[in-house]
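Because showing beats explaining, we let one protein speak, sequence and backbone structure tokens together, and leave readers to judge.
___
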Amino acid sequence: MKRETYAPTCGTCDPAAGGVQQNPDAGPRASSVFGQKEIHCEVCSLGPCAITDEKTRGTCGANADLVVARNILRAAAMDAADHGARVGRSMLALKQAADNEISLPVAGSKPVSAMATEFGFPIKEQSLETLAGQVADTLFEDMNRVVSTPHKVIDAAASPERRLTWFNRDLLPVGLPHEVFEALHQPTVGTQDEWRMTVDRLMRLGIAFSVDALMGGSIARDALYDKPKKIVAKANLSALDGGAVNIAIHDVSPELLDCLVQAARSEEFRKSAEQVGATGIRLYGVCLSDLSLENENCGLIPLCNVSGSEVALSSRALDLWLADSRLVLPGIMNVADCHKTVVATVGEKEGMAGADHFGGNDTSVEMDDLAGMIVSRAIESFAGRRDVRRDEELNEVVATLGISLDALDAHYGCLERVASALINGQIKGIVILTGCANTSGADEKALLNAIDLLLENDILVFASGCAAMPLVKSGRCSKKALDRCGDKLQMFLKGELPPVWHFGECVDNANALHVFREIAKYAGNAMKDLPFAYLSPEWSGDKGVVVPLAYRMSGFDSYHCAPDPVSGSEAVRQFICEGARELVGSSMKWDSDPQAVAEMIIADFAQVRSDRCWR
């Protein structure tokens, strides 16, 4: 059967016009059948092996159960390592800021004091920097443990019910790097031939990711930047200013991000931009980890998710696209070349073929210089693109951003009001939508229709990550979308907050988990016993495995539209989908139709409410 080909976003990349031809076997549809009818193993050079109905074992003797369990464990480990590397950078930046080794200040005085108290440090007569250094040291110690010792982040951030569940099931992790090592060690040939033990390692990795990457990373970012601030701002392509020097930032280190903000604000570069005819310098975030800084009125605006990168470039309004190697699709180079947009990479190890590369190390002086070179290159690019017509977005989109526990406490006094609304039926349940965006999956309209169905049934929606961008750009994160809610949910929101609460990027999921934990506390129940759910309609890479895994380990049922990654083994699929409920209190469900998934959530929430004798 002929596979579909990928249609380039940019018309000038058409092969007939002399552009770059896409690989017909590399399109987004090409992988949609892989692993469903056959189970592939590429662990060693004895293969690769395909496990089929006729050939039930690979060359080494591994059957479908073992191969599927090893494959999903390896995928989760890869993403946990990617997130862990980013978290390590935030922790290091906090430590360096505390030691005055970089120019980035420690801005989160309240979060630092709160965590120092949680960790048992005396705070009287201690400077903010001293306490911040102690918090950073604790985060490093927890994440990099090599033996099972008390985990301070788990004790501070996980609920007592979760801690007891993990302990009783022998699932308490050591540290994220240790669990990643073990997760990549076990799938090697002849190391672990019991699929059930492999899945136990998967669950332990999910907990380590949850506490060290999500919770630990959130603590470090809050200490460094302070808590996110709730703001209403323009979002998506409507925020692009055709007359300004426009720089899209696809995730960089915290200290470089701060230096870029300062450089863009400086009188020197403002005058340089005016001299080439620009009205100013604007910064935009693409899959940006540091939403806290983004919400500090520094001009960083959510532009698009990873899948929307080519669309943003095709607006022709971007002068420079700055990135490290995280989730930057190689295809953006073709589109950028078509519109004379400069693509630049930073760091000692990151790079893309054809992009400008700016090196640098961690010293503050060189980081300031690096930011200056990048902004100068963007101004130079603006001057060289005068002949490029820039699109103007006609429909202005605004979104409420920066939702967090602190922001909701400030709005409601405390989350007891939200818990009461959950009990009395003004809120029938709460869904957290997060994850990736996959161009081979359901289109955005289908997703929006499913979200609207949840809202109509008085289900509140939290959102973060790439999957949240369709809700941002369609106005669901604006108060203007309140008419999409059922009467009871509208009554609860009172026209004060939107029906979709945006918590930031995927690395900000700890903020949402904190809110769920607080609601559960006031509701007097464990999270696993409440109408809470995790919704990830699709995934496009390994991270689609580990983030839902973290929520599963917290007791959330997860719902998906992409085919589950364990369908090649009935034993593994049955355990992960339903069997794990006895261990961690959660299940996994999927249907290719987003509308059917929404209906599934509505029905399951109704059952949970009935079990609790709630209206």
Remarks:
- Residues 64-98 form the longest helix (35 residues).
